[in-house]
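hey can u check if this looks right to u? its 412 residues, i copy pasted from the old doc so theres a chance i mangled smth
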Amino acid sequence: MFSRRIATLLCVLGLAGLAAPVLAQEHPADAATVRPEVGKPLQAAVTLLKGKKAKAALAKIAEADAVKNKTPFETYMVARLRAQAEAAAGEAAAAAHDFEATAESAATPAAERVQFLAVAAAQYYSARQYAKAAELATRYFKAGGKDPALRTIYVQALYLGNDFAQAGREILADVEGEQQAGKTPSEIELQMLANCYQRTNDKAGYAHAMEKLVAFHPKHDYWLSVVYSVTTAPGFSDRLTLDAQRLKLATGTMRGAEDYMEAAQLALQAGFPAEAKKFVDAGYAAGQLGTGPEAARHQRLRALTLKSLAEDQQTLGQDDARVAADKDGAPLLNTGLNYVLYGRVDKGLAMMAQGMKKGGFRHPDDARLHLGYAYQLAGQKQKAVQEFKSVHGADGAAALARLWVIRLGQGA
């Protein structure tokens, strides 16, 4: 995945940028020169490298390295050229070690040290020595390096080195930076973020990462995962089960006959037979209900739903005055939602608005969630999003609301 960027880093110290050894005959005391017995095999190695003969170049470099009593500069030149030859020969671990030594050499020009740190990190990464790759990348950035390719290597090295806690922090910082810049985080990046949280058993972080995945790269499997993570998160309230089933139906993430059955039964218990019929019809249309050993049970639920629907339609409106006179807003809110479910949107939303003004809800966030759901059913997306964004709390209502906002942002 990153081979092209790593190759770019290696080219930073390519043959064109590598100063050829200086053969010091007239000025043997010059600290920045090499003696002929060292310089000649090094010069031959440079020529061999230009001809892409890395193995032969390594043999010549070994001749130079065998010379006794080398000066610090000669040692530096041997290590520098050997590192390049090792990289060209595919000996990443050895190249990484020599590039690191070159970066630490006092003979290395200060302006080049950061580049050697970069190439050392890239070579350690190629050698799958991920802890060392991360260490060298860290030193590179502390030394003032800014190449984004090294950032990629650093994060990937943390991840592949199983340092998931730190990798998660770094990936999240990158994702948030990309979002602030108006860019779309990559799917792979967000998958890695989710996996980091999963590996560290951070359920809240995992749910957050999955929300980003469905927001930027909506796929059915991601919706399945994010809805599941929300509904199984610690503290998720059972009273929100019907709300979760509503979201599942909208996102196509109902898992089977039991989901449809449970949703319909909860809708009936809540006094919404029209919604119960919606769940039952969807289950039959999906081929999940009406087949298999439980087909008779499915049929009984269908008959009960139709019976409740007929009875509710006959009595619809009879309690409007009573619920309007109630001191709390909950009866108005529920009755209004029932009207919306029947398609009588204007009347239903007006009643729900009155109920919200009255207040007195035991769970105010649930009320806002239900009003947002009603706006969504009515096709009033902007109002639905506005209402969903007002939902707070840690019992699951806010998490469901955020997913509704994401879904509506995708044209649902």
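The chain has a mean pLDDT of 91.
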